[in-house]
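User: Good morning. I'm curious how protoporphyrin IX containing FE would be positioned relative to this chain. Could you predict the structure with it bound?
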Amino acid sequence: MRQKLSSRTIINFVLDSIIFLAFLATTAPRLTGLAIHEWLSIAFGAAIITHLLLHWNWIVQVARRFFGKVTWASRVNYLLNTVLFISLTVIIFTGLMISEVALPLFGIRLGRNALWLLLHREATDVMVLTLGLHMALHWRWIVNTTGRVLGFPSRPRPAAPAALVSSSSTTEVSS
Ligand code: HEM
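Assistant: Good morning! Here's the predicted structure, ligand included:
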């Protein structure tokens, strides 16, 4: 029977989808224009903070057990999340340093120079790569939850290989 989705899963799904789509948009400032790029990215930073707070228990638990009893998948996941967080912090910080729309609107101009721009671009490349790995690691959750939220019928689990089923049982294999 299909399990009911908890409101927490739905909130995570909606927030993660918004974060993903917003991130895609922020990587293409020539497409969106600079004003949308800057304001969307600032809102994006706020969404990430909410995302971190929703997963705070996990963050604290894995940090405590990082060198102890924890699976390698969790360790890799934790390292990837740390790289994501650092690259995003660099992107937002350097973005504010080179801001041409958002901060100048309040009369603020920070030290825009070629180094900040270079860091802004390189950190974006790092983040795109890391986000791909992050999504690969959570692919099962993404596919399952998307299917359940959109109401797709769940696929039956594949039958166990014949060699693993006891000879007395007569398991019907669905195609
Ligand atoms: C998730 C956050 C962000 C991402 C992924 C991102 C990504 C990018 C990318 C890929 C470029 C294009 C660089 C190029 O043309 O080669 C760019 C340019 C730019 N970004 Fe961001 N950015 C982010 C946040 C911000 C923020 C918060 C600001 C300022 C408030 C900002 C200000 C700018 C400016 C002014 C440029 C144009 C630089 C230029 O070519 O003169 N960005 N950004």
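The pocket of protoporphyrin IX containing FE is lined by residues 23, 26-27, 29, 34, 37-38, 41-42, 44, 91-92, 95-96, 98-100, 102, 117, 120-121, 124 (CB under 6 Å). Residues 39 and 102 are 7 Å apart (CA to CA).
Let me know if you'd like a different ligand tried.
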